[in-house]
Amino acid sequence: MKNIWLYILVMAGVTYLIRALPLVLIRRKIENRFLRSFLYYVPYATLAAMTFPAILFSTDRIFGAAVGLAAAVCLALRGKSLLVVAGGASLMVFLAELLPIF
Amino acid sequence: MSQNWFRKGIRDGVPICLGYFAVSFAFGIQAAELPLSPLEAGILSLTNVTSAGQFAGLSVIASAGSFLEMALVQLVINLRYLLMSTALSQKLDRKVGLGHRCLIAYGVTDEIFGVSVTVPGKLSPFYSYGLILISVLGWTGGTVLGAAAGAILPGRIISALGIALYGMFLAIILPPAKANPRLLGVILAAAGLSALLYALPLGEFSGSGLAIILVTVLVAAGAAVLWPVAETEETE
Lengths: 102, 236
Prior knowledge:
heterodimer
């Protein structure tokens, strides 16, 4: 294994620059309506793309993950907090994977 | 005034802190398998504060990838922060100075961003500091504990914790979508397109950070053309 601290430095450096450049460089209001709308939709599009289909492969079995996905969607739609949704989904995966069906 | 904002940030950050704890605990377990020490895993979380980027980073380290590969992986997976920081720059008063901007940048994550943009009016840097402080505490603390204690947990529990990250993502995007069918449309389109790209035989591109950027740009641009947003809607 290469030096772990150098890996961490590269990761942190790249990630920080991505975060800092727009905040430091953009002081004005963006007037372009298309750009404003685009930025408004970005978090929803990117988080949805990151979640699906990756969520199905995030646990040992797809069946368990599907149950966890259903639980997370129900809890999130009821407006539960991050902890309740994340914890509830994990709990349902745990219970589902206890079932001796597969 | 700034003290009140700081306290409010801490309060609003508690759910993020607890959610982060569960996810970073899972991260700590994976990091320990490499093996990273609890100290190394903890510093990694403290300096990066990024869920998906860190998980992807672990696989680069595991495969002894080059530093260039690591930099590219982080760039692609975390490029969404560029868009989030750009959006956040519109929430800050023009007078907010360079120092504040550099500090706020440290804590631009999906969750902290999601909470920050819902604050009515301009964003106080001190509100961000409260959010960041409590969230990073949960993120780093969970990592260290996961790395130190993860090995004694049964495999079934570790498997179940694997879904925590995605549960957290859903908790951010679904509640606003309930009241706004356009957001629901964006979410379904992005999830569908992402699944399609995954199913197609595209080699390493499938499921990669690049695929996620492509889906994001296509869907967000499409939605911006179809449903341009009025300024009053953006703070909702």
